[in-house]
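Hi U.,

Before I forget, here's the chain from the pilot set. I'm dumping it here mostly so it's searchable later in email.
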Amino acid sequence: MIFFRFNSRQIFFPARLFALCLYLFTCGYCNSTTYNELAKIDQTCISSSSQCLLNVETALLTSMNESRQWYRLKLFQLDALFNLQKFDQLSAEINTLLTLKTRPINFSVYVYIYHAKILNSKKETSLAKIYIEKAINLLEKINDKYPDPMRLIEIANIQAAMKEHTLAKNTLLQLERKFEGKYHPIFKRELYANLGHIAVFQKDDASHVTYREKSLKWALVANNNQQVGIAYYNLATAYLKVNRYKSSEENYKKSITFASIEDDIMITYTSQLRLVELALLQDENDKARTLFKQLPILSVNEKLSENFKTLHQDLKLRLPLE
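Structure:
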């Protein structure tokens, strides 16, 4: 029997009841979502960003804030929001997470990375660099103890964001050599996707095509429809840059097919926009006009980047009058 004293009164608790209360008060795993359900969410998030988001938001309703489970679910949520280009919602989540007084170091790395990317997209370069440096410092601490190839890709991703493209490329090529014989589809999808991004900045069109082809190969193995849609989109863009118009058109169409499955509105829309551009490049004016008319109307929460806004206006001006 255990007792507590409150205002000169003794209140007695059976030892088992006290232990249970203490457990419920301190336990980081006291949530309704079971281990098996978490494992299912994990697998869902590997294969489907849109379904991942739905499952995570449901699980978060019954998760204790700032428990281990909660942080795990929040990371799934951030990844899915980023993959689906829901940047306003992502930004709101990040701003809330930054107010937490303490966060697991692994989790903080990704919060800083996503925050830096959002800031960079808003041209707040100086502030973005501060958060990039914060992420790098934490990653170096983690990787000294627990080397993880996916985290090392994040380092290269940050280096590229800081426009250190040669340094980022060298980091990625070292990883390619180190893990050449490893079967790790998601890692290799991301490895070649990042090498493809850098090839764009370095205006290396041949390498751009090669890396996009490799990224698509591993995306298909990893079997995430949304990521497959992105990989087809990136490969189509690489073909467009080298004037392989038919191959580009074919891959944009495949991108739309996979993106539509996952309700990835932005990849679907930008692929459709590129098909209009391709029709004009091949002097298929009637086809271009028809495709332009079929473009969906985006909601207020679905915003094109400045580059695509410019492309939209340019295509509109180039379309022949009826």
